[in-house]
Write a structure and sequence with these properties.
The protein is mostly beta strands and 153 residues long. It folds into 2 domains: 47 residues, no CATH class; 93 residues, Cupredoxins -  blue copper proteins (Immunoglobulin-like, Sandwich). The chain contains 1 helix and 12 strands; from the N terminus they run βαβββββββββββ. Strands 5-12-11-7-8 form a 5-stranded mixed sheet, with no helix packed on it. Strand 7 and strand 8 form a beta hairpin. The protein is elongated and about 65 Å long.
């Protein structure tokens, strides 16, 4: 977070951070060229102390899948970071989507979608986490179910 010494100092944030289950890890300023006579800006590095945060201390689990070899059922753990890498080892372009049911308007709820993967190519999903429950990995091009994914704590 960037701040300015003309308005406040590091200690001014301590009570605010504590209420949010955060802590001030460090502060720093950048060295400027000699001809700049002052710099009042500083940066606060904030770390979480909250059990409900999934921070950078948790690695991203990369799940590599060939479309033709996807297991009919998979089990994953909730509150972990995931990224899928989908390789198209089939002959047609494919759009692979992870679904979590439908919304009140009947539209699919998409966790991620890797659109139009051409044969012999691969694409990565965005990074995401899953809550406990059931998910469907679908060939969205043909609406074919590829895998049921069960997520438990």
């Amino acid at each position: 977070m960037q701040e300015c010494y003309m308005a406040c100092e590091e200690n001014d944030f301590l009570a605010f951070l504590e209420k949010g289950h955060l802590k001030l890890s460090e502060t720093f300023m950048f060295k400027k060229p000699d001809n700049q006579w002052r710099d009042v800006y500083y940066y606060l590095v904030i770390k979480n102390q909250h059990n409900d945060f999934i921070g950078d201390e948790y690695p991203v689990n990369l799940i590599k899948l060939n479309i033709s070899e996807i297991k009919k059922q998979m089990k994953l753990k909730s509150w972990n970071k995931y990224r899928f890498e989908i390789s198209n080892d089939l002959e047609d372009n494919k759009t692979i989507t992870l679904l979590n049911g439908v919304d009140k308007n009947g539209k699919d709820i998409k966790v991620f979608e890797t659109e139009n993967i051409s044969p012999s190519n691969k694409k990565q999903s965005n990074i995401f986490y899953l809550t406990p429950g059931g998910y469907d990995l679908v060939d969205y091009t043909s609406k074919k179910l590829l895998s049921k994914i069960e997520v438990k704590q």
